Amino acid sequence: MIIAVSACLLGDNCKYNGGNNYSKKVAEYVMGHDIVPVCPEVIGGLPTPREPSEIVNGIVMHKDGTSVDEEFRRGADIALKKVKEAGAELVILRSRSPSCGVRSIYDGTFTGTLVGGQGVFAKLLIDNNIKVLDESEI
Ligand code: SF4
Prior knowledge:
By secondary structure, this protein is an alpha/beta fold. It has helices at residues 24-30, 40-43, 69-86, 120-127; strands at residues 2-6, 34-38, 53-56, 59-62, 90-93, 104-106, 114-116, 132-134.
């Protein structure tokens, strides 16, 4: 099977703080499959490291109010295209990210509070009928 995966889960240092979210569980789950690593925030032109972002009233922004909505949505669009062109049947995504979160995301108050909902990329994948899994479901 062809499986796209949030690149940070595979150990790519594309996380906002310059680190990664390597998951042994995910790595073992995708072993033997064709893997397509994807990071919509980097694809959208954002630097690493970068300021953390949350979705505030539908707009992705930094804590100081700077909007990065355009970069997030452009990155999600390009990443969707990459997933489709690769023929991925499943996308495994990092929990809680404003791009990749599937089940819950931070609520836009930058206080570590979670609410139900999806990140920009996860929502776009779901809207395009592409099967997604939150890493916590692995
Ligand atoms: S955008 Fe997704 S793949 Fe990129 S660092 Fe954030 S959670 Fe990981």
